[in-house]
């Protein structure tokens, strides 16, 4: 009877609230469904499975709460009525605090929200409250390496031992799959908070349902004793109350979960129950003859009961550890308790909307539906972008960065559509996003106190991104309008539906920064579809050209079940040793588990312990060898070369390599040996990276922060947030500081401490990185203090030296420094020294005189080029003198016209020739000259005398038109203009056309 469907199948409370204009809850007479089970509409399909590695592994039971509300006059307010909520009584912060305190009082430990950047390669962003606990649900009981948290739990619960703690959280979440509905419905958001309580093998259905009901009906439904209510009591009338009346709540229960149904009905004593099928889950809306229209209900609380493992043959077996995963939408509960018609008008979002309305010079209360929708979009998206940037996600054209860029640009475009502009500052426009971000930040203190400390970075990034987009927006919109016009015209001619090609959409995306969704929105407004398949092809082609494949170890759901569940985290020994004995715990070939691999095979090896560092924190994985020794003679029976080490789910190290000799089996004992020279290179570059960041902050300001890094054996790459290129002087200062600290031969100190203690001590944390309760801190005393799990030198003198190779921009607001240290620094300096020696020999000067000699040579070269150009112009004028005699005269105005090709004369020579001819010929005169100076180029020039210009002819328009025949363009003033092209083979035809057009134009102007 039990069904394995999804990680979300649970006891699913679904509070729903109507959008009645009166903003008041009215109670319907309770509907008992005892003895019958209501079925939801069959239009709700496919909601049962979660594709994040959990859905096919765990069966869960889902129940739901529904709150009914009146949307008609057929209510009985005389006997059932709800008092109006006192303003501010149930603020969003108060609702969040009450939830967390409620479960804390019942043995749960309150954990902070995890980052919006999940520690899970299968998920782009944090989309649910349970995501940070995914390893626990998969049977990896290490609670995200939070050793300190587990110790706290054990101390608090010695009298009632539990295998794993119970926790409660308020989790920041991002979902953009329904972005087109944001602002258009009452409940869709990209950013939201999910309140949750979780049990890992402790309590189960009975406690979860009882507590959920108590929370909904008592904690959020207290009696309000006013003077009027006391008088009512004296007259035996009902008390006024507010919150969630029990008779207004409906509970949905998974159809085959009789246990949960009985608990709700018999123990919790709930009668408003209905059941649903696993493939017909009433998530956000529910429509049926029995329960009425969608607007009558709002889902607010889900209880997920995980109790079965679905095997490959489809059969179910009970899990050894039954888990609870719940989620209550904070914004939805705020909507209910604050009695507003939608999530956006709660105190969690509405202050942002009010600010946007003031910038648009409108009143939200008086605005029409279209204006309100746009304001809601702005309010929602601003929350999302502020929290994403705070968690280290910066705008870019790939991955998470693209999500941020898309949301920011959607806000900017939406704002401009309703008239929002930044305050003018002289001739420039100041961004308006920062003023909206200030409101978001002011609302953030309870959910994420770190947002306030990152205010400057958030505001700066939003301002730069908005202004960059505004600069290209006009050009892009103009191009898009032209493309849409062409699509509509083409469709009209051939009778097809108008469509924008994938290439055009990609051009807008890649060149003008238009997110494809915005292009699709604008196109849709004009009835034009978008070729998404073609766009995807263009994107894939770009990825292949510009990006190397990124190595990510992914274990499929099946492999997680068979391997990860049975293998403990890998013990890392590499801080103290480069060699160790270990046991092979698993082997993978092409992602599939095997028991043995033979010579020549590419293999991934899982060990119980290892000295190999796995790629993380920017540092590459170690290289080295694994050996299998056999017999008393200790001869090597197998040799495996390791060329990379990655981390898989949890903290399992995956050693990737090739069997060079012999074979390897699961269970074998091996000797692991790390390449010491390569490790030393990585250590030198990692410590140098820390020194570089400190020097950078010292030279350009502490507001800059790390945006990414690569620590390789032979180089380092450091990406940082900054709005301009660094000067040569700044780079020299940074380099000098780092080398000074290296020369000081300072011993490094490494400590493990509580995260908060590390932050209090001033340790630098990587923006957006996730850390456990205990962290490793690497300190160069007096210079650098950072949270870091990488390998480092023991003394800065081991770095030997540091040299910056380059500094460049890699994305808007992101700069990159490439540098070398250690042996790579010595190799680089020696190579440069050899180069300088050869240069000195060629120039016949000393090293210190090379720069002066080069400047002299360059100056001589410039002078020579100027002389050559002057000579060419003189030659062109001499050639032009002979062309004057070839002028034709057009009557009756006697306009003298010269249209000729001048061989390989360059643009400057062509200009001189045209100036000579227009000065030599009597007014009125017109001169059009063309040439092919080489390299596949075409030069064109047109010169018209004053009398010709008075006839209405313009040199700029004329030469620009004929340049198109040569694959180019150009323009200029009415009397003189230049153009160019890339098709010299078309030049004769272009000049012939020019001759015909100028003659016809002169003749027609005289008639």
Automatic annotation (TrEMBL):
Keyword Transmembrane among UniProt keywords: no
Top-level taxon of origin: Eukaryota
Cofactor binding note: Binds 1 zinc ion per subunit.
Catalytic activity: tRNA(Ala) + L-alanine + ATP = L-alanyl-tRNA(Ala) + AMP + diphosphate
Listed InterPro entries: aa-tRNA-synth_II/BPL/LPL (IPR045864), Ala-tRNA-lgiase_IIc (IPR002318), Ala-tRNA-ligase_IIc_anticod-bd (IPR018162), Ala-tRNA-synth_IIc_core (IPR018165), Ala-tRNA-synth_IIc_N (IPR018164), Ala-tRNA_ligase (IPR050058), Ala_tRNA_ligase_euk/bac (IPR023033), DHHA1_dom (IPR003156)
GO MF terms held by the record: alanine-tRNA ligase activity; aminoacyl-tRNA deacylase activity; ATP binding; tRNA binding; zinc ion binding
Keywords tagged on the record: Aminoacyl-tRNA synthetase, ATP-binding, Coiled coil, Cytoplasm, Ligase, Metal-binding, Mitochondrion, Nucleotide-binding, Protein biosynthesis, RNA-binding, tRNA-binding, Zinc
UniProt domain Alanyl-transfer RNA synthetases family profile: residue ranges: 90-831
Binding site for Zn(2+): 686, 690, 788, 792
EC code: 6.1.1.7
Predominant place of localization: mitochondrion
Domain notes: Consists of three domains; the N-terminal catalytic domain, the editing domain and the C-terminal C-Ala domain. The editing domain removes incorrectly charged amino acids, while the C-Ala domain, along with tRNA(Ala), serves as a bridge to cooperatively bring together the editing and aminoacylation centers thus stimulating deacylation of misacylated tRNAs.
Family: Belongs to the class-II aminoacyl-tRNA synthetase family. Alax-L subfamily.
Protein purpose: Catalyzes the attachment of alanine to tRNA(Ala) in a two-step reaction: alanine is first activated by ATP to form Ala-AMP and then transferred to the acceptor end of tRNA(Ala). Also edits incorrectly charged tRNA(Ala) via its editing domain.
UniProt-recorded name of the protein: Alanine--tRNA ligase
